Amino acid sequence: MALPPFVYSPFVRDWDQLDNTDIKQLKDASEGWNIEYKRDVPKAEAAGKSLSSFANSYGGWLFYGVETPSGGASMPTSFPGIDNLAVPSVLEMLQRGAVLVRPHPFFEHKIITGPDVVTGLPADKSLVVVRVPPGAQAPYIHNNGRIYRRIADSSEPTHETDRHILDLLWQRSNDARNQWRDIVTQEFVVSRDEERQPTVHVFLTCDPHGDRGAELPLNFDAFVDLMREPRKDSGGLPFDNFFTAPYSFVARQVAKNDPYNLLLTWRQRLDGTAVVSFPLAWSSVGEAQTWLEGYTQAARFHQLLDSSGLTKGRILDLCTLAHLLTSIVDRYRFLLREANIKFDFYGCTRIDHVWRSVPFIDVPEYSELLEKYGIPLIQHEAVRSPESVDGLWNLENWPTEYLDRFLSGFDLFSGAAASLGAWLEPKALLKDWSGLSSRGQDRMVERTSRSLDRRR
Predict the structure, then answer these.
(1) Percent of the chain with pLDDT over 70
(2) β-strand 101-102 against 141-142: which pairing, if any?
């Protein structure tokens, strides 16, 4: 998002492909800006210095289990490795070291086990390989109050005191934050006829701070193949119109609709960030009774509208919102899985043009809420969830049970609904989440069919 992922690698092959046949390449890789070798299990304080120094510089690689001559930066002399039983201790020290740094630097690790004849790595030993991207939340400050960086060919982190360098680190952090803010606050151009159309924008990212080095390793043809996929586990949203845009690919769901209209549109950036926009289903208050047919709470809701004296404005169907948010989160998870990106991912929503609208949710608890407190009439032109431009919901990329997939989009929906005045206890939504989303999908299909029939 904000920084290039890795400007240097001592290896020819990609990170996911590394094994013990690759470590021979380290014999020609000297310590310095991007590499640090350590012979033994580190202490947490030293690990924190190393991690923060790479994050504050240009990113780099830490190798535990590599011998170098004393007296400064140098080439490896041997690869004795770390005893396999001691490898968990290295990983623990790395985690503890990261905790000693504010903010915590992001890093990944890989265990490369012996034997390797070329380097002499024994069969019962391993190398612990750690890569750290350049950190977008710089400066990363050690708990001793110091800011460490990598300097030239030094084998150890160096305490940085140059005010100009420190200012540049702060600017790096500001630039990364501002880039995300530019994405979530951007203005979307629509036609004059659609200026009052309630519109949902969903922002998804697997690298919210730009410090994970995320990349979407897909070419345009691969993106098209994945976005055409209508399988249920990929979100069930078949797209049929594709083109490129600056630093991104675009997919739209046109089908038999007017392509000039505001339609479901997926903008996929190459850094893994996605921006998905779609019109939110609505009707006038006067047509609400017919428009909401098929919902279990439709009649009750219409009675509440009559008794409230509301005769103008719009009704927003949040059941269709539940269905689409669920499908969008599933599709994004599917894309990350196919791209072998294993980070958690995050999201937020913005809904434009909703002033003086009334939300509808087809659950009895919402009807009870309206009977108790009255009809919510939205007082904002646009709402955001979470409210802060820097706020994000953690949407958990890798569910371990079907229940997690079943709840895809729940956090996005409950937050968006609350921002529209339709706040409910999570348990009230969870009780019928599947049915709520399914009923929203059914109404979408019915309304689309009626619309097509009218055109004929």
Answers:
(1) 92
(2) antiparallel
CA pseudo-torsion sign 42, 46, 49, 50: negative
Phi, psi angles (nearest 5°) of residue 246: -55, 120
CA distances from 93 to 43, 156, 350, 450 (A): 6, 17, 41, 63
Whether 1 is in a domain gets the answer no
**Which pLDDT does position 301 carry in this prediction?**
95
Asked whether 403 and 316 are in contact (CB, 8 A), the reply is no
Euclidean distance between CA atoms 29 and 159, whole angstroms:
24
Q: Which residues lie across from 147 on neighbouring strands?
A: 141
More confident residue, 177 or 92: 92
At CA 124, angle to CA 122 and CA 130, rounded to 5?
Answer: 80
Digit-coded pLDDT (tens) for 232-288: 777 788 899 999 999 999 999 998 888 999 999 999 998 899 999 999 999 999 998
Residue in this structure with the two tokens 């009977």, named with its chain if needed = 371
pLDDT at 383: 97
Burial class (CB in 10 A: 0-12, 13-18, 19+), 82: buried
Residue 47: enclosing H or E segment and its boundaries? Answer: helix 44-56
CB 410 within 8 A of CB 424: no
Using CA atoms, how far apart are residues 128 and 308, in angstroms rounded to an integer? Answer: 67
Judge if 255 and 340 occupy the same domain.
Answer: yes
Report if residue 317 sits inside a domain: yes
Dihedral-angle region of residue 374 (phi above 0 means left; psi in -120 to 50 means alpha; beta otherwise)? left
Q: Which amino acid is at 273?
A: T
Nearest to 354 by CA among 378, 388, 323, 319: 378
**Helices (H), ranges, 127-245:** 163-185, 220-228
Residue reference for tokens 């229940």? 403
pLDDT digits (tens, 9 = 90+) for 207-226: 887 777 777 888 999 999 99
**In a domain? residue 181:** no
DSSP symbols for 53-121: HHHHTT-EEEEES-B--SSSS----B---EEGGGHHHHHHHHHHHHHTEESPPP-EEEEEES-BTTTTB
**Domain containing residue 299:** 191-455
User: Coil, strand, or helix at residue 191?
Assistant: coil
Q: What is the pTM of this model?
A: 0.84
Supply 202's token pair.
Answer: 């969903």
Looking at 141, 176, 211, which one is the last position of a domain?
A: 176
**Count of domains forming the chain:** 2
Q: Count Cα atoms within 13 angstroms, Cβ side, for 388.
A: 5
For helices 44-56 and 87-99, give the axis angle rounded to 10 degrees: 60
**406 and 363 share one domain:** yes
